[in-house]
Amino acid sequence: MSLIRILVIAVLFTLPIKVQAAATPESFADLVEKLSPAVVNISTTQTVKSPFADGGFPVFPPGHPFEQFNEFFENLPAPKDGVKATSLGSGFIISADGIVVTNNHVINDAEDITITTEDNKQYEAEIIGTDSKTDIALLKIKGGKKDFAFVPIGDSDKSRVGDWIVAIGNPFGLGGTVTAGIISARARDINSGPYDDFIQTDAAINRGNSGGPMFNTNGEVIGINSAIYSPSGGSVGIGFAIPSNMAKPIIESLKAGKKIKRGWLGVKIQAVSKEIAESIGLKEDVGALVAEVTPGSPAEKAGFKVGDIILSFNGIDIGGSHKLPRVVAETDVGKEVKVEVLRGTKKQIVMAKVGELKDEKDDTADNKPKGNKKELESSESILGIHVIEITPAVREKYELDKDAEGLLVMGLKSGSAAGEKGIAAGDILIEAGQKRLKKPEDFRKVVEEVRALGRKSVLTLVSRGGENIFVAIPVAKEKN
Predict the structure, then answer these.
(1) DSSP class of 465
(2) Of 49, 64, 237, 383, which cross-links 60 as Cys (Cβ 3.0–4.6 Å)?
(3) Any residues with CB less than 8 A from the CB of 318 and at least 6 apart, and which?
């Protein structure tokens, strides 16, 4: 091959890739003019109970520094049972007969709801239905009018990071306000609920924008503006919207007066952290780690086991644990699905029939320290954790569940790595290195095996307050 040809090939392979970017819109005016009539302001009133309504004003005892104010309070009129409070938000009309979509938190506990349209006409509205888990509410404008301007709901899955969006809402009660920006990120989990999957934008979203629409440049609603990140209370360019594809089935169910049905698998999961991945020899921290399988659940019937890592569900990859609850919830009740799990070091396919999610209850028990000084001294210390075997006598003494098995944590050495990872007195160590623990020597043996493999942590299954979690505990040798 000639030197010239080699040089030509080298140049071709080092040239930068040219990307043809879409032109920046010259103006959003035509789009806004078309969409604004369908965007509404929502004001609500509710009665807030006075803190003195039940017992009147405070009475200070003799000798109290504020005793002199007793006479002043006695001469005041009796407090009312409550005062009227007003809140403001946004929404958008999706049909000519005045069906309005907004956030549940905008109208929650409202006694009266007033809708104001772009032309400053006001209407009373009633609640058709709400869903607190996704923070969506559906309203109906009263009066029988059937020629309201409305907007279509689009496909949020087609939107990409970097796409232009327009937000219209009612920030700080100022009235119809338009802001524009781009989609900054997708699938954001902001810990607001079990099904977080927010679209993030840099368009200015402020208080009062809640429930308002996020439009694409085709004039379709691709999100419901719901939350902001703001240390100051104002916009800092980090706003979040519920994707339209998540909202659509909820809206349709509420509109039809149907109960919201969500799929249920029956596993309690946690994220696969880098430490957990390293402790079991995984190269990537992906999937959802099964910490507990609910008795009688679809997961138990399908054969799921504690320690399984769910990699995909019904053909959808589970990159992070927060994605699984949403994917399961959106699956039709009764549908049989294929679930890929990593069990030990092997991938397996588990077939599961999706059940229906019922109302959840918080059965978390109090977790109190268990051991006194004498008991701590008599317990064994492994990785800085003082543990004792759970015997029938221990179960009775510490009022443990009759089926409790493993090692009871009596306390921890000051500054121990286990304590830094959240291990606390009252925890029960059920497994270590995916092996059941019955005696302290079982735990010590697993720790030595993990060290021999050159791993930095041992994966430990912990029962805390009636719930199971996995904790990767560092196995560096204790310092004397």
Answers:
(1) T
(2) 64
(3) 286, 287, 288, 310, 311, 312, 324, 327
Task: Among 226, 258, 290, identify where a domain stops.
Answer: 258
Co-location of 122 and 224 in the same domain? yes
The single residue listed with the structure tokens 């589970």 is: 318
- Is pLDDT at 22 greater than 90 in this prediction? no
Q: Are residues 101 and 218 in the same domain?
A: yes
pTM of the model: 0.66
Could you tell me the CATH number of the domain that includes residue 172? 2.40.10.120
How many domains in the chain? Answer: 3
**Which residue in the list 87, 210, 279, 416 is annotated as catalytic?**
210
Average pLDDT over residues 7-18: 47
For residues 90 and 106, membership in a common domain is answered with: yes
Q: With the C-alpha atoms ordered 49, 53, 55, 61, is the resulting torsion angle positive or negative?
A: positive
What does the pLDDT look like over 43-73, one tens digit per residue? 988 765 555 555 555 555 555 555 565 666 5
In a domain, residue 10? The reply is: no
Reply yes or no on whether 155 is catalytic: no
How many CB atoms are located within 10 Å of the residue 476 CB? 10
Of 43, 87, 105, 184, the catalytic one is 105
Place of tokens 């510490």: 398
Catalytic annotation, pick one of 43, 87, 90, 135: 135
Write out pLDDT tens, residues 256-299.
988 888 999 999 998 888 888 888 888 888 899 999 999 999 99
Query: Catalytic: 54?
Result: no
Q: Are residues 317 and 393 in the same domain?
A: no
Provide the pLDDT for residue 62.
58
**What's the token pair of residue 259?**
């109960």
Answer yes or no: do 82 and 166 share one domain.
yes
319 near 271, Cβ under 8 Å?
no
Q: Is residue 378 flagged as an active site residue?
A: no
Instruction: Give the tokens for residue 304.
Output: 């799921």
Range of the domain at 84: 30-258
